[in-house]
Each structure stands twice: as structure tokens, then as C-alpha cells.
Write a structure and sequence with these properties.
about 600 residues, 26 helices, alpha/beta
Length: about 600
């Protein structure tokens, strides 16, 4: 096993604080396991006095196994922040696993409260996730609830939901994962004797992926490490990509201010990627201003240049991708050595469909959404069903006020709706008769259109986009996010002449998707499809970064400099997953609109 000079210095660090800057492929796991061994065998530290913290259970288990292969000592604690802090709470309050509020039960409580408080949202699942994230942010950042302004709903409504949620689970004697941090902080701050006992227990603390830490975790960590401050942190500020979860890269950037005597070590060799990939990635990330300056060198050879290609549209892009994958397979490359990376989960759909079309096996790191199950797609299909068949009450209810027509449920007293009956009901309201007549005419017009033209007419002729604008305003989101989904739905309808043909394709796609989901774990040699976020920590011989356009990467939600720096870090993470070959694709046109290459590509080519 070859250990570099920088790794040796990190492993042999003595007492006191140390910060190890560990770039992609620099061997940070080796450093942590070897340092733990060094503490036990060279410094005579008792294994029970060493704490190694990771961010995921899988990483903790891997670290424990890796340590077991290099050192026979037992007793070192390997765990996540939550596992370690819950261990502290168990001793103080005699909590058991029965006191933990599972994520499933947490979402169940929130869903029930949202319905009781009449949170009106078609995308209940998305709103639920946003509200849960905001509740976590209030707790982890220790924000006064009265000073927190929700992005998902009106402030008073959020505060009421927060307070009701807290009461609901605390009345049952339950604590959620955020409470584990809050309670631990409050306990250690209030009880100097308990804090001192844990400080004696964990005299040496090592933290992996430190760039992902949030402020509350850091405050507890500083309390535990004092007064000796044998705090050994390993991370890469350039790979801090979880700001939306509360991670604060500035904590790592300010570490030497909090610990002025901290030793700083840069693992300056990238053992993973070829020189062209290392140099290209560094050119991009160097544009960030809030970072540690690093001079990283490739430790291996390889000369395949970064492949940057422009395509007319996504169809050409996905066809070329398939061609590249098939060529790689014909040359003997395992499909499991190949990854296709995209910015958002929704971005997977065109490429997943293309791979299924050519029977190329793939695995998804994230759940692959079926766009046709989205409520907007359900609205479109409801309109088309109503236009071609009898007026089913359930489907009529779904779209009768999208856009607003002021039709009430009380007017619908049969399982099959009749426009004549509606007119009779509203005969004394001329303005309502106009709306009913217009809806009937719209449905007749839709019946004679191709699916593509019909979707276009629903959007612009019927006024569905106006409804989406109102919905987006109520949900405090940009209507463009919803329009993009409409674009994709409309584009998928283009090849079909009849609604029946399109419907057949939709059902076939759902069946293939279900088949793919059920075989996901059994697929051994398959291409990996992943978002940039979920690709972190992985490596592949060949990587395709797709749709690298303005508005996608960087994402259109990015509005301030901190957002753009995080988007650049995401792109850097994607680039550095590649070992031998890196392909970066962008398109000139998408859904009939001109697209610009990502600004990150310009930086790469400078």
C-alpha cells in the first residue's frame, strides 16, 4: 500500500486540532483508518477514547470494516452524528428505539396536520418535503420561529404547523432526528458534569466529510472536543453541495479562525482521474471565490481529452449517448463502469426512456419519476378523456376550474355530467352560461386535434397556463418550473397522431418503468443513472454529464452568488466522478426554445 507524503503527515498528526483538505480521489478513507490505527499503536490511545463520525450509516460501516482490516484493536466508536448523539441521550434520559419518530411517521403527522389546516396543494408530496425541510432548518439553525419566513407557505400558517407538529410528537414522548441534535446540545450546555464525562470518553474525535456539517452539529462537536481539542477533520470545501439541507461550507472555511493552532494538510494527489480530467475540473472550481486555494496533481497517467459536444436537441443528445454506450460495450467495457449524470431527478426521463428503447440495462441511484403520474399530466389526460368520451364526473371535477370557471360541486349530481343539465342549473346567470358554452366548445375542438396540438390548445387556448401561474403564486414558486413539466409532456405527445396511440405509449412506459424498478437490485452489469447530488462518493471509468445548459446547470433557481458557487461545486463533483473518460453534452434547442451552453463550459474552455 503506497502512502503519499501528505497522507503520512495527516496520519501521524499528534495532538490538537487538524484540518485535512481531501480533494476527489485523494484517499481520505485511508487517512482516517490509518490515523485511527496510528493513535492506538503509536500513541497508545485506548480504542474506547476514539470517536469517528461520518454522515451516513453506510460510510460508518465501511470505515469500521476498513479499520478492521488494518488493526485488530476493538472499541473504537464509528457512527453518524445522529447515532452518536442518540447514544448520549440514551444514557441521560433512558431513551430507547421506541422513542424515535421514524421519517414515515413524521410525514404521516405532517400530512394529517396539513389536511386539518387545509393546505391546498396538488403537489402534496413536494409541499410535504419542503415543509419538513423547513422545520429541520428552524431546529438545526436554532432560529427563533417568529423570525423564520417560510418559502413554501404563508408565515403564520407555517408557524402554526410547526407548533402543532412539535406538540403532536412530543405529547407521545417521541423525538425526531433533528431533536436528537437539539436535545444533545441543550443537555451538554446545561450539565457540565455530563459534558465532562463525554469529553473524557472521547478524547480523540475524527470527522469525515466535514464540509457537510451544519451549525448545530458543529457547536456540539466543539463542546465535546474541548478542552484538549483533539479534533481531526477531513473534507473538501469544493464538494460542499448540501446547502439546501443546512450544510454550511463556511464552517470549514472558518475552522482555522475557531482553532488558530490547527494544522492544515492538503492531500494534493488525485489517484482517481486522468490528468486532463483533473486539470479541467480545477479550471472550473477555481472560479469560486469562497474556497481554499488548492494545487492538486494527478497521480496517474492517461491522455483522453475531455469530450465536449453540442447537439441540436435532446433527441440527438440521447441517441448519441446510446451510440457511445453501445460502442463502449462492444469494446469490452462493463456497463457498470459507465454513468450518466444530470442535475435533477426529472432530467433522467429522456435518457431512461432512450435506454429502455434500446434494451440497455440501467440502475437508478434515485427513484425515477414517471412524469405521466404528475398531477399536471393527469389534468391534461383528463381534458383529453373528456373530449373523446362521456363526461365522467371524477375527471370533470379534476379540471372544471382549471382555469377558474366558478363551477361548483353542487351542480354535479350524476356520475356522468351533462352540459344541458349544467345550463339548466345556471339559467339565470348569463355569465356562467358563457363559461359552460365555452368549455363545451373547447372539448369539441380538442376531440379533433392530434395529442401535440391538443396539449398546446389546453395550455394557450383554454388558459391552463394562467391557472398554473396562479397556483405557482400561491405555492411561492416560479411558474417556469411547472411550464417545464408541461413542455416535456407536450414534447412526448409529438410523435403520435391519435390520443389512443399516445395513451398506449404512456401505459407501455409505465409498465417498463415498473419492470425496471423491480429488477433494479438484481441488475449486475448496468449503466448508472444518477443526479449530481447522488453521484457524490462514486467513481466510474466513463462519465457522461448531460444537459449542461444555462438554467439546468447552473439551475434556474440559482439567484445569488452563493447559489452559483454551490452549482459550480455540483458540476465539479460530477466531473471528478470520471476516471478515464469524461463527456460533457449540451443542446442548442429544447422544447422549441433556444438554449445557451452553461457558463461553466465557458470557464472550462478558457
Amino acid at each position: 500500500m503506497q502512502i503519499s507524503d501528505a497522507q503520512s503527515r495527516a496520519i501521524a498528526h499528534g495532538t490538537g486540532p487538524a484540518m485535512v483538505l481531501a480533494g476527489p480521489g485523494s484517499g481520505k478513507t485511508l487517512v482516517i483508518t490509518q490515523r485511527t490505527k496510528y493513535l492506538v499503536e503509536q500513541y497508545g490511545v485506548k480504542p474506547q477514547e476514539i470517536l469517528v463520525i461520518t454522515f451516513t450509516k453506510a460510510a460508518a460501516n465501511e470505515m469500521r470494516l476498513r479499520f478492521g482490516t488494518v488493526c485488530r484493536a476493538s472499541g473504537v466508536t464509528f457512527g453518524t452524528f445522529h447515532a452518536v448523539f442518540f447514544g448520549i441521550l440514551k444514557q441521560a434520559y433512558h431513551f430507547t428505539a421506541a422513542n424515535i419518530l421514524t421519517e414515515e411517521k413524521k410525514f404521516g403527522i405532517l400530512r394529517q396536520l396539513m389536511r386539518e389546516m387545509k393546505f391546498a396543494a396538488e403537489d402534496e408530496k413536494e409541499l410535504l418535503a419542503e415543509l419538513a425541510a423547513e422545520i429541520s432548518a428552524v431546529k438545526n439553525e436554532q432560529i427563533d420561529l417568529q423570525h423564520y419566513y417560510s418559502k413554501a407557505c404563508p408565515e403564520e400558517k407555517f408557524r402554526s404547523l410547526y407548533q402543532s407538529y412539535e406538540k403532536a410528537h412530543k405529547d407521545r414522548g417521541l423525538l425526531d432526528f433533528d431533536d436528537m441534535l437539539v436535545y444533545t446540545y441543550e443537555l451538554l450546555a446545561a450539565r457540565a458534569d455530563i459534558l465532562a464525562a463525554w469529553q473524557r470518553r472521547f478524547r480523540y474525535i475524527l470527522v469525515d466529510e466535514f464540509q457537510d456539517i451544519n451549525m448545530l452539529q458543529y457547536r456540539i462537536l466543539r463542546m465535546l472536543a474541548a478542552p484538549q481539542n483533539n479534533l481531526f477533520i477531513v473534507g473538501d470545501d469544493d464538494q460542499s453541495i448540501y446547502r439546501f439541507r443546512g450544510a454550511k461550507p463556511e464552517i470549514m472555511l472558518n475552522f482555522t479562525k475557531d482553532f488558530p493552532d490547527a494544522k492544515q494538510i492538503l492531500l494534493d494527489l488525485n489517484f482517481r482521474s486522468s490528468p486532463p480530467i483533473v486539470h479541467a475540473a480545477l479550471r472550473v472550481i477555481a472560479q469560486n471565490t469562497t474556497r481554499f486555494d488548492k494545487k492538486i496533481r494527478p497521480a496517474r497517467s492517461g491522455s483522453s481529452p475531455v469530450d465536449i459536444k453540442e447537439f441540436e436537441n435532446q433527441e440527438h443528445e440521447s441517441l448519441y449517448l446510446v451510440k457511445c454506450i453501445k460502442t463502449a460495450a462492444e469494446q469490452g467495457r462493463a456497463l457498470s463502469d459507465i454513468a450518466v449524470l444530470f442535475r435533477t431527478n426529472q432530467g433522467a426521463s429522456p435518457f431512461a426512456q432512450r435506454l429502455m428503447e434500446f434494451n440497455l440495462p440501467f440502475v437508478m441511484r434515485d427513484a425515477l419519476p414517471n412524469i405521466y403520474e404528475h398531477w399536471i399530466a393527469q389534468d391534461i389526460r383528463a381534458y383529453l378523456h373528456l373530449a373523446r368520451r362521456r363526461l365522467d364526473r371524477a375527471e370533470f371535477l379534476q379540471v372544471m376550474n382549471r382555469p377558474k370557471r366558478y363551477i361548483s360541486r353542487s351542480m354535479l349530481d350524476a356520475s356522468v355530467i351533462s352540459f344541458e343539465t349544467l345550463r339548466t342549473y345556471c339559467e339565470d346567470k348569463e355569465w356562467m352560461l358563457d363559461r359552460i358554452d365555452r368549455m363545451e366548445l373547447d372539448l369539441k375542438l380538442l376531440a379533433g386535434m392530434t395529442p401535440y396540438a391538443a396539449v398546446n390548445y389546453i395550455r394557450h387556448g383554454i388558459g391552463y397556463e394562467e391557472y398554473l401561474k396562479e397556483y405557482a403564486a400561491a405555492r411561492r414558486m416560479k411558474p417556469e418550473e411547472l411550464f417545464e413539466l408541461l413542455d416535456e409532456i407536450q414534447q412526448s405527445a409529438r410523435p403520435y397522431r391519435t390520443f389512443e396511440e399516445w395513451q398506449e405509449q404512456i401505459e407501455a412506459y409505465a409498465a417498463r418503468l415498473e419492470e425496471r424498478r423491480s429488477s433494479r437490485k438484481s441488475e449486475e452489469d448496468a449503466v448508472t443513472l444518477a443526479t449530481l447530488h447522488s453521484s457524490k462518493g462514486l467513481e466510474f471509468k466513463e462519465v457522461f454529464l448531460v444537459d449542461v445548459n444555462e438554467g439546468t446547470i447552473p439551475h434556474k433557481k440559482a439567484s445569488v452568488e452563493a447559489d452559483f458557487e454551490e452549482e459550480r461545486r455540483l458540476f465539479y463533483v460530477g466531473m471528478t466522478r470520471a476516471k478515464d473518460k469524461l463527456h460533457i453534452f449540451h443542446v442548442k434547442e429544447r422544447y422549441g426554445r433556444e438554449q445557451e451552453p452553461s457558463q461553466f463550459l465557458e470557464e472550462l474552455l478558457e
